[in-house]
Amino acid sequence: MQPLEAVKAARKMLSQVTPLKRDCGRYCGGACCEPDEDGQGGMLLFPGEETLYQQLPEGFTLMQDDAVFPDALLLSCEGYCERDMRPLSCMLFPLLPTRSGVVMDRRGWAVCPLMESGVNGLQKEFVDAVKQAGDILYACPETAAFLDAIHAYNLQLQSL
Ligand code: SF4
Ligand code: SF4
Questions:
Q1: Does residue 86 line the site of ligand 2, with CB under 6 A?
Q2: Confidence (pLDDT) at 159
Q3: Cα separations (Å) of 54 from 62, 90, 159?
Q4: Residue among 33, 34, 56 whose CB has most ligand 2 atoms within 8 A, to mutate
Q5: For a FRET experiment, which of 51, 52, 77, 84 has its CA 20 to 30 Å from that of 64?
């Protein structure tokens, strides 16, 4: 499977589910969308996903960011987006698929109140959708390598 195909299938899998039954942003004021001190927020795009952002909506920028994965692109936003423009990384948050299931994304400890309750505190439909999206993403070498790089980066975060 090509990366764009895998990303589109994973996005579709997650298009109708959210971490909680209610809008979890109500609990935290949408902390994971909150711009940082430079006025920017955002997430890394999966390989191939940039094809879906050739026409950037107002308030979005795309820049190279090699911190986690070579030649990765960071989609920066101003803290709001339409659901169909939401990058896959944002749809998966605060979970990350692994090769055998899901884990909480350790980058979430900085912002997300759902980290405390862990995977079992999240809506089952969301957890299942992330698992299924993970099966698709790990079937594609490029998106699998990207996920592996995020897990490696998160392990480094833990050891800091
Ligand atoms: S920080 Fe966590 S609780 Fe808040 S909107 Fe993001 S995923 Fe939901
Ligand atoms: S792209 Fe959308 S979902 Fe992701 S951080 Fe920005 S506003 Fe939030």
A1: yes
A2: 66
A3: 10, 18, 37
A4: 33
A5: 84
